[in-house]
């Protein structure tokens, strides 16, 4: 039921290891420049996703509600605590460990691939979407780990837990596969969140991005309720 998630997590680990080996050859100034450039690229990707064909008002409402929920649950703080616990467990002295862990975790967990792929894997025993995501995440891991350090490799834990739970709960979320509008809803909302990650990596402004994650689920639910009540 979660074979796609297992493969995805393994791809992140493999890509991160390759990135750590490659990153040792880069100077700090080069790493700083690469992080900012990657941040700009991530921001552009977020903008591209945010311009999907979908009414933007529900996205705004969902982001506000989702962020309030995320702040109350302190999702970012809990992720940071988990990252710090992992750092101490492996006795890492990396100052960038927690940042790399949180940044990579959010990037890999945001987007329609993560949600729809997990649901499809759990509901239909079809991991094909997650296999494609695994390839993409593996490549991204090389870049992130080479610049943000060893914390990126442990984002595989977040992905395994997050996508694994979605797969196990897939039956109750199967409505997300029924209409293209729900895919667009997830993509647009995820695009805004990814944009905030890119802005943070580029050093322009920092957002508590992980606290926005509940919005990804609120937008398609908003669309679903609007559809059945209309």
Low-confidence stretches: none
The rounded distance between the terminal residues' Cα atoms is 35 Å
> What is the radius of gyration computed over CA atoms, rounded to a whole number of angstroms?
17 Å
**Largest sheet: number of strands, sense, barrel closure:** none
Give the class from helix and strand content and strand pairing: mainly alpha
Mean pLDDT: 87
Count of DSSP H/I helices: 10
From N to C, what is the helix and strand string? Answer: HHHHHHHHHH
Number of strands: 0
> Approximately how much beta-strand content do the residues carry?
under 5%
Helix content: over 70%
- What is the 3D form? globular
Furnish the topology, listing elements before pairings.
Layout: H1 3-23, H2 28-50, H3 56-73, H4 75-89, H5 97-109, H6 112-124, H7 128-148, H8 155-168, H9 180-201, H10 215-229
How would you describe this structure in keywords?
10 helices; 230 residues
Structure explained in plain terms:
- The protein is mainly alpha-helical and 230 residues long.
- 76% of the residues lie in helices and 0% in strands.
- It has helices at residues 3-23, 28-50, 56-73, 75-89, 97-109, 112-124, 128-148, 155-168, 180-201, 215-229.
- Helix 1 packs antiparallel against helix 8 (155-168).
- The longest helix has 23 residues, at 28-50.
- It is globular, with a radius of gyration of 17 Å.
- The chain starts with a helix and ends with a helix.
- The model has no long low-confidence stretch (mean pLDDT 87).
